[in-house]
Design a protein that fits this description.
The protein has 18 helices and 18 strands. It is 36% helix and 20% strand. It is α/β, with parallel strands linked by helices and 484 residues long. It starts with 16 loop residues before the first helix and ends with a helix. Strands 8-7-13-10-9-14-15-18 form an 8-stranded mixed β-sheet, sandwiched between helices. The protein folds into 3 domains: 17-216, CinA-like (Maf protein); 246-438, Rossmann fold (3-Layer(aba) Sandwich); 441-481, no CATH class. Helix 2 packs across helix 5. The longest helix has 21 residues, at 160-180.
């Protein structure tokens, strides 16, 4: 992503914040309210300063005091105000108030909107950098229902004033995008960083809803957040809807299984189930406070240099159908994934993997960018309360089973491996089904593409039916009808 600086100058044909605000102000049909809590009234300030604001701003407010905010938007039972629920309450309340107070007969062509944000900026001790929710509820025709765009941001700057300014620019970008880029959601997403840079903020969740966005798949929008460098990880629940990673992982025990899941197989599910049993037997690990994550790295989604969006949806749909959480990350190295988890929890972290993946961890080529090399990476990987649950590998030529006891790493890595192995950081999965050792996603995929029989038995219950019904992974009934 090219560097984009804040300010009123236009860079590489990107309209400045002032130009965007002025274009909206000069549109006689756009009219609405601004409700901003926690970081001043930074977004509406751009519209006031651009000129012609009286044609756009019906009201601007900041119900900063909690009691006052409760009186306006209602009481939050959990006592938390920087939440998606609070933001939605604000958006809905302001739109209903606008509809109630403005006569449509007097304003027949007006497209109403409500913009809101509820954020917390960096604290005095600079321990927590701050985060928040930003959204807009808007019409694109006076006779149509409202559409919504809601996103979550995490601030990276270490100064409250800078964070406020960043929030203001983001707000202008969101409002401008809602009205002028709504038919191009991918461009709208990128435009949120106009006159900003990824070093200033992270957008780790976004949801489009409403009639105008009925064709938008929010899973793809989340994938683009990672692809565009706006965030390093996004997450989906079993229902396929976006989840906020920070919210899901907060103070949780985390067990992650990395794979391509193309498609998800019985082997994947066995590794997960057996690793889960071992993980739940660990001290102070309770099931109700444990998050299971099926994680796919961005590198695994790239085919021939580009991300295959359909392929991404197919994999996600199948794993979610098994009742699992899916996470897409930009972390090729495991230590980076563990560092990310550690931002949200100090509880136990487990990684479930096969011997092949585990051996790759000891390949020095992945750590050449670190001044401390592989030792630095392993310090970051294992300094937390982390364990690796290792599933055995069957040598397809000799039939020999490889576990933590007889796996082979580079001679220079032997002593390093022994240190972690004999300090209890590596746990073998022992109660496995030998039949599973011959199942590989790549083999299943080739059988589907080539019309070979028998691949269904390698997949969890119900997955083959979905593949056939949705014609996933190149499945064609014709291929199998031609088999004698």
């Amino acid at each position: 992503m090219a560097l984009k600086l804040k300010g009123d100058t236009e860079i590489n044909d990107i309209p400045s914040s002032k130009a965007k605000a002025l274009k909206i102000n000069l549109n006689e049909f756009i009219y609405g309210t601004f409700a901003e809590i926690g970081a001043g009234q930074e977004t509406v300030r751009h519209f006031f300063r651009a000129g012609g604001a009286s044609g756009t701003i019906a009201k601007a407010m900041s119900a900063y005091d909690k009691e006052f905010s409760d009186a306006v938007y209602g009481i939050e039972e959990e006592g938390r105000y920087v939440t998606e629920q609070r933001l939605k309450r604000m958006l809905t309340y302001e739109i209903e108030l606008t509809e109630d107070r403005l006569n449509r007969k007097i304003h027949p062509g007006k497209m109403f909107f409500s913009f809101a944000n509820t954020v917390t900026t960096i604290d005095f001790s600079k321990k927590y950098k701050g985060h928040g929710w930003v959204g807009i509820k808007f019409q694109l025709d006076p006779l149509e229902a409202y559409n919504e765009i809601i996103l979550h941001v995490r601030f990276k700057e270490t100064d409250a004033k800078l964070q406020q300014e960043t929030l203001g620019v983001l707000g202008v970008n969101l409002i401008y995008g809602a009205f002028y880029l709504n038919d191009k959601p991918k461009e709208l997403l990128k435009s949120l960083y106009d006159n900003l840079h990824e070093v200033q903020l992270e957008i780790d969740m976004i949801n489009f809803s409403g009639a105008r966005f009925s064709y938008v798949d929010n899973r793809l929008m989340s994938l683009l957040l990672v692809k565009n460098g706006m965030t390093n990880a996004v997450m989906f629940g079993p229902d396929g809807n976006n989840l906020l990673p920070a919210q899901q992982l907060y103070k949780a025990n985390i067990l992650a299984l990395r794979g391509s899941f193309r498609p998800v197989t019985k082997l994947n599910m066995e590794i997960f189930k057996l690793a889960e049993q071992l993980f739940l037997n660990e001290k102070n690990v309770q099931k109700e406070n444990t998050k299971i994550i099926f994680e796919i790295t961005l590198a695994n989604l790239i085919a021939e240099g580009e991300i295959d969006e359909r392929d991404f949806l197919e994999r996600t749909e199948l794993v979610c159908s098994l009742g699992q959480n899916v996470m897409i990350t930009n972390y090729q190295e495991y230590y980076k994934l563990v560092e990310y988890f550690s931002e949200f929890t100090k509880e136990k972290i487990g990684l479930a993997m096969g011997v092949n993946n585990f051996i790759q961890i000891f390949d020095e080529k992945y750590y050449r960018n670190l001044s401390g090399g592989i030792l630095e990476a392993f310090g970051k990987l294992f300094f937390k309360d982390l364990k690796v649950y290792l599933y055995p590998l069957k040598d397809q030529h000799t039939g020999k089973i490889r576990t933590s006891e007889n796996l082979k790493v580079h001679p220079r890595m032997k002593e390093l491996y022994k240190f972690f192995k004999y300090n209890g950081k590596v746990v073998d999965i022992k109660d496995y089904n030998p039949d599973m050792l011959d199942i590989f996603s790549k083999t299943v995929l080739e059988m589907i593409s080539n019309g070979k029989q028998g691949w269904e038995e390698m997949l969890p219950k119900g997955i083959a039916a979905i593949i056939k019904k949705e014609r996933l992974f190149g499945y064609s009934k014709r291929n199998f009808e031609n088999i004698p």
